[in-house]
Amino acid sequence: MLATADFLKRLPYFATLSPQALEQLARETRELSLDKGEIIFLEEEPCDGLYLVASGQIRIFKSSPEGREQVLHIARPGDTFNDVPVFDGGLNPASAAALEPSVVYLIPKDILLSLVANCPVGVAIIKQLSAQMRRLTQMVEDLSFHSVVSRVARMLLDLATVEGSSAPVPRLTQDEMAGMVGSVRDVVGRALKSLERAGAIKMEGHRLLVVDAGRLKEMSYVSDKSRIR
Amino acid sequence: MKKVVPEIDSGKCTGCGDCVAKCPTHAVALVDGKSVIVRPEDCDYCTECEVLCPSGAVRCPFEIVLVEAEPRATEKR
Fold this sequence. Notes:
The complex is a heterodimer of chains A (about 230) and B (about 80). With about 230 residues, chain A is of the alpha+beta class.
């Protein structure tokens, strides 16, 4: 346990813990030895806790339904990974696998949360930062795996205000829409026409009407192999 | 209900007349050296004027509205 406690003390997260608290934390920490290529956890699985790399390298990645991968980060000794779901309570936002024979420590979620529980403001701030990080991770997935048509479809689903409701109606130019989905106006214009041809939306003057939200949702998951950017 | 037409920022409009020349429905004209939608009833909101305005004076925002009562989407709001 002493070796684990020494390792934990060197990490910025735990540098201020007392020796007794470090010892306690070390007792709760699990050590995992991994072979090259071994999967540690998968995206969308429930979160076990926070991982720390003791040795080796860990690949953090997103996968598309077709099996394409986008690496988000290579975690090296001293790095943590899977921080986001520990604090926002959601599922794992990405998968993790050993790039080479590696050793990682797992601090169970409840144990880690107990270390910050006496600072509610801090917890609230961490939750907010985690939610922002999750949104950025989702953005990487969208930009990597989804066509502009599907990104525009998802944006419209997120933004559309129910007609007649008291919520403010979003007003966006096609340039502004392009900025939101990481594309350019011309391509967004073509994407809107595709969605209109598919019967998901209807352009009526200055109004962009979502007339079939189910169809729009279907199109938001299309990962077009001949993607237009 | 008043017809919604492209928004023209007269402060940015240089009066170059590009939108007047290219408007497919001839809804826009120069008035005192600035572009104005003079025939709003003819404007079909094609957004051409926004695309070609070299000074970025024209905006054609779209209101994004869900008109289908779809349970999943209405629950979000």
